[in-house]
Amino acid sequence: MIRFDNIQVRFGDHTAIPGLNLEVKQGEFFTLLGPSGCGKTTALRTLAGFIEPSQGEIHIDGTAATRLPSEKRSVGMVFQNYALFPSMSVWENIAFGLKVRKTHKAETRALVDEIAGQVELTSEQLDKNVSELSGGQQQRVAIARALVLKPRILLLDEPLSNLDAKLRVQLREQLKNLQRELGITTVYVTHDQEEALTMSDRIAVFNRGVVEQVGTPEEIYNRSATEFVCTFVGAMNRLSVEVMQRLRDAGAALEADKASYLRLEKVALQRPTEASDSIRLDGIVAERSYHGAHSTYTIHSHGSSIRALVAEGGAAPLVAGSHAELYIDPASVLQY
Amino acid sequence: MRNSWRSLLRSPLVLVVALVTLWFIATFLVFPNATLLIGTFFPDGRFSFRALEKLVSSDRAMNSLWHSFLLAGTLAVTVNVVGIFIVLVTDYFAIRGARMLWLGYATTLIYGGIVLAAGYNFIYGRYGFVTNAVGNWFPDIDRDWFSGYFAVVVVMTLATTTNHMLFLGSSLAKIDYQTIEAARNMGAGTLRILWRIVLPALRPMIFAVTVLTFLTGLGALTAPLVLGGTDFQTIAPMILTFSKSSGSRDLAALLAIILGLATIVLLAMMNRVEKSGVYFSVAKVATPLTKQKIPNRAANVTVHIVAYALFLVYAAPVVLIVMFSFLDSSAILTGTITWDAFTLGNYATVFGTPSVLRPFVVSVVYSALASAIVVVGMLFVARVVHKHRNPVTTLIEYLLHIPWILPTILIALALVMTFDRPQALVGGQVLTGTTSILLIAYIIVKIPFTLRLLKAAFASVPESLEDAARILGAGPLFTLRTVLFPLVIPTAAAIMALNFNSLLDDYDAAVFLYHPLYQPLGIAIKLSTEGENNLDSMSITFVYTVLLMIIMGLAMYLVYGRGRASTGRRRRVRPRWA
Fold first, then answer.
1. Where in the sequence is the domain holding B517, given as residue range(s)?
2. What domains, with CATH codes, occur in chain A?
3. Of these four, A28, A32, B469, B474, which has the most CB atoms within 10 Å of its CB?
4. Beta-carbon separation of A132 and B578 below 8 A
5. Strand partners of residue A5
């Protein structure tokens, strides 16, 4: 559906993207994930046609689209700040693209009403000025405006970043449902790992303009290809030399000269019931942070602090200063 | 923002705007001022100090230079003292009736320049009402008591505090109140907080308004002309006098160049100070200022008394002008007011006599035309300059700021001296003496202010709006018309109103460039201040002034008052095409 072939983007002397190769499949929810300034938005804007790459080709549906103006690429875009036209009503905003295309009035009315219904905007809200809407409602207008022209591709540039935490969770579910319902190929940009993991079919993790890994959320999280992906996505314990020595002494086949990481939920504080290769470490509980459904323990062991995530409702909580047993399965240790 | 040459050259509209602007800059900004410089220093095609020698040997010219710097220096002190006091009593200290005091002090927002000078002259001048009234009791009084250095300083001090009210007031509002609370928490008293916390935070703005005040004093024309008398004439009136004779035009040009150089040096100093140091709040969550009580009772009473005395000084001329506009001229002359003296005759004369109304209409037409043309033109220029950054647009932007660094008098003189013969750049026409040259001058002087604000308005529109319109298929012109213009039009309308206001009573450009058959208001008012046998024109001037104050007050309300009111919720209905 979408193919980036060795795309290079330069701004003066600065190279934002040195050479991007990426493929997005038809109907896929594809996320570009990475920290600020990593080139994910630049890649999205290049796909939208706002930035002309200095090298390479973009193909949409097998056709070269690099030189096509943005309005000819059949892409709809939702901007980070929504970019709603403040001098127009909600209705005028959604109908803007149809007016540009000189769509018949009756058809415009029908199309606007249809898309408004899909994004759950009421008739009363359509008559309001955009400044009268809440952030969540403005976001729906932006989505409706992008979708009313029935584009083949929907581009979303951090559309949830301006919303509060609760609304963000609610809207990401609705957004994902709408995408699934319409079957539209979607490219989503975010720096929020949780958003990427929960919404995406596949994720491309960006770092300094380079894609470090492309994969499903499970692959990205459990089988991070690089040290950057491993540390950027989800919380991690970096295991000290002493801990690694202890694990190797206990028979773990781990390399000594590599950086070693372990996810918090892979540290057990109770002996696993099933037969496993887990290795026991002893430590002292330094701190417990209560999060409601789970707690995070910080345990000093072999000269380093190891954090463990434990579901609440099981054994009695450990108190600071008490002895703790940690069980680590060497197979869970990621080395780079 | 795009910086490619290709995008600039691709659009015919952009090309037309760039070409017209370059022609305008070359013809009216660069060429006249270059002609003035060349005419002064290369009178016979060779470099010469002749003008400088004439200047040094002319006592009048040298005196005018000294007087200008003396006036500018005095005003830098007096305006700051009065201006800072006004801002503190209206915005910082808890003073009873502060809102009313503000209105009194703000009267200079709706009348200034020649109108203010004429107003004071009619009240306190040789033939003024107060002088006449006092003269009835004390016939030996010096009737010229309100003239010369003293009168000019008083009038200009009162007229120039508007900068403090507008700019220093808004700077004060930006001070983070938590810094004051922190100082108080550490035991600092009211005076110490004012001296060590508040005033230092205002220092850059105080410096900026001081420079503006100094420049106003240096280039003052109307106040010295009307109230200076023979003993206190400054550069600008001298330029006007010397420019009237062809033998001393080089002297006028040299004085104008000196004025221009002083302006450039001072503005450069101001820019330098503006760039150094951050004095405004660095807090992420600044707390709004709360008015401070003056704990010392004696100090509180003294501040109240001075504040109200100043209020009277500011408000009295306005009240008197309004009252005098309803008085018959003999009552003003004799200084005795009875109920019978009140009349609507002056208004009837103004509205009923076409020749009397004419200056008013001429000024309204000139101001409206100039402000509309400059705003419409700069809308396109600002758009092009903001959208396409390249050496040509940068050069255009810099050159369009020339009128900012040159005094109006110099610009006017340069226009007169350049276009008094056929010039190829304007199709071989002579413009001096025509009605168009004053319009051109008005457009020129309003360009920098208009361009700067409109560019800021375009810059405040998020670029993503244009991207959104583009991805939805809208072309550049459609986007400009439907998305961008509706967002910058309120700013454009406000600029138009402010430009209109400031041109309505102009004297500085008009005195050099007006067409004898189409005398603008500034000229008519100035003429009415000359001699003692102008009683009727004095009464008519009071009517003009009242009308000006109404128009200016209305424009200020439309720009500031209505702006605030319209920020409320606004419902829109579906458009007709839906």
1. 1-44+342-565
2. 2-232 (3.40.50.300), 236-335 (2.40.50.140)
3. A32
4. no
5. A57
Measured in angstroms, the CA of A116 and the nearest CA of chain B are apart by 14
Nearest CA to A221 out of A239, A238, A202 is that of A202
Asked if A91 and B571 come within 8 Å (Cβ–Cβ), the reply is no
For residue B387, give the CATH number of its domain: 1.10.3720.10
Cα–Cα distance between B22 and B396 in angstroms, integer? 7
Cβ distance A127 to B464 less than 8 Å, yes or no, reads no
What confidence tens digit (pLDDT) does each residue in B158-188 have?
A: 999 988 988 888 889 888 888 888 888 888 8
- pTM attached to this predicted model: 0.78
Q: How far apart are CA B508 and CA B237, in angstroms?
A: 10
Which tops the pLDDT comparison, B330 or A336?
A336
Residue B571 lies in a domain: no
- In this prediction the ipTM stands at 0.81
User: Which residues of chain B does A121 touch, with a Cβ-Cβ cutoff of 8 Å?
Assistant: none
Q: Letter for the amino acid at B272?
A: R
Residue B184 included in any domain: no
For the segment B245-298, what is each residue's pLDDT rounded down to a tens digit? 878 888 888 988 898 888 888 888 877 776 665 454 455 556 788 899 999 999
Question: Taking CB atoms and an 8 Å cutoff, what residues of chain B touch A149?
Answer: 472-473
Task: List CB contacts of B180: < 8 A, sequence separation 6 or more.
Answer: B193, B197, B198, B289, B292
Total domains, chain B: 1
User: Residue B3: what pLDDT?
Assistant: 47
Q: Are B573 and A89 in contact (CB < 8 Å)? A: yes
Question: Interface of chain A against chain B, CB under 8 Å?
Answer: 48-50, 69-71, 75-77, 79-81, 83-89, 91-92, 95-97, 99-101, 105, 108-109, 126-129, 131-132, 145, 149
Asked if the structure places residue B251 within a domain, the reply is no
Q: Which of B2, B10, B460, B471 to mutate to test the interface with A (most CBs of A within 10 A)?
A: B471
Establish if B540 belongs to a structural domain: yes
For residue A124 the two structure tokens come to 């009363």
What is the reported pLDDT for A334?
93
